[in-house]
Amino acid sequence: MHDRQPLAALLRKLRQHAYLGERDADDLFALPVTTRSIAAGGHVIREGDRPTDCAVLLSGFTCRHKVTQDGARQIVAVQIPGDLIDVQHLYLDVADHNVQTLTQAEVAFVPRTAMQDLAARNPEIGRAINIGAAVEASIFREWVVNVGRRDGRGRIAHLLCEFALRMNAQGLSDGQAYDLPMTQEQIGDATGLTSVHVNRMVRSLEADGLITRDKRSVRFPDITALREVAGFNARYLHAGEQAISRRPLNA
Amino acid sequence: MHDRQPLAALLRKLRQHAYLGERDADDLFALPVTTRSIAAGGHVIREGDRPTDCAVLLSGFTCRHKVTQDGARQIVAVQIPGDLIDVQHLYLDVADHNVQTLTQAEVAFVPRTAMQDLAARNPEIGRAINIGAAVEASIFREWVVNVGRRDGRGRIAHLLCEFALRMNAQGLSDGQAYDLPMTQEQIGDATGLTSVHVNRMVRSLEADGLITRDKRSVRFPDITALREVAGFNARYLHAGEQAISRRPLNA
DNA sequence: CGTTATCTTGACCGTCGTCAAACAGGGTGG
DNA sequence: CCACCCTGTTTGACGACGGTCAAGATAACG
Question: Are A140 and B141 in contact (CB under 8 A)?
Answer without folding.
Answer: yes
